[in-house]
Amino acid sequence: MTTILCIDDEKRMLELLELFITPHGYRCLTSDDGQKGLQLLSVHDVDLVILDVMMPFMNGWQVCEAIRQKSNVPIIMLTARSDKSDVVKGLQAGADDYIVKPFDEQELVARVNAVLRRSSAAVDSSIIVRDGFILDLTAYTIQLNGQTLSLTLKEFQLLETFMTHPTRTYTRDQLLAVVWPDRSSTDSRTVDSHIRNLRDKLKTAGFPTSDYIVTVWGIGYKWK
């Protein structure tokens, strides 16, 4: 279940947020203090934070900055004022969106859904899943059957190119242009060398490279 952490020093606002959120299938955690909210975030798997700006002891901007030092969890700021400087300050602190009080259930849920969709799309776009392989574009790793293999940047970029367009055959010149854009002193033999090293690494790790990275004779390579 998607979990939303609501941080606001007003008990009535926390009750209202929970009342609006839970009927739409979300689990709601609440905290009336910024520091306590950070503690909840550290021990629970939270998908979204709704964070009030004006709180005593530790205001919303400070909490937002503290969250961003450790997590990329989406954050929606709550503000009682529509002052642009407040909005800009929240976004600069790392917030993903903001809601001006007072608000109704429809607006809140719409913004929550939109931020969660954007967050999900961002996560999904960093992962390529193809034929049982999982290519992580942020960690520069490839995984198959629970086994993870680290690659050099060029090897990874070659694999990413193939897996992003699995039906396309690439000439050596096309691969040079994609992976070595500043190739003043690089020739097609560099592509062959890196393909060979990539195949060897995957084969040593037990990955069935002969079934996937295919030589198209007289042209180049493709992912089959």
Molecular structure report:
The chain is of the alpha/beta class and 224 residues long. The chain has eight helices and twelve strands. The strands form three sheets. A five-stranded parallel β-sheet has the order 2-1-3-4-5, sandwiched between helices. A four-stranded antiparallel β-sheet has the order 6-7-8-9, with helices on one face. A three-stranded antiparallel β-sheet has the order 10-12-11. α6 crosses α8. The longest helix has 20 residues. It is elongated. The model has no long low-confidence stretch (mean pLDDT 85).
What's the topology here?
Elements: E1 3-7, H1 11-21, E2 27-31, H2 34-43, E3 48-52, H3 60-68, E4 75-79, H4 84-93, E5 97-100, H5 105-124, E6 127-130, E7 133-136, E8 141-144, E9 147-150, H6 153-164, E10 169-171, H7 172-179, H8 188-204, E11 213-216, E12 220-223
Parallel strand pairs: 1-2, 1-3, 3-4, 4-5
Antiparallel strand pairs: 6-7, 7-8, 8-9, 10-12, 11-12
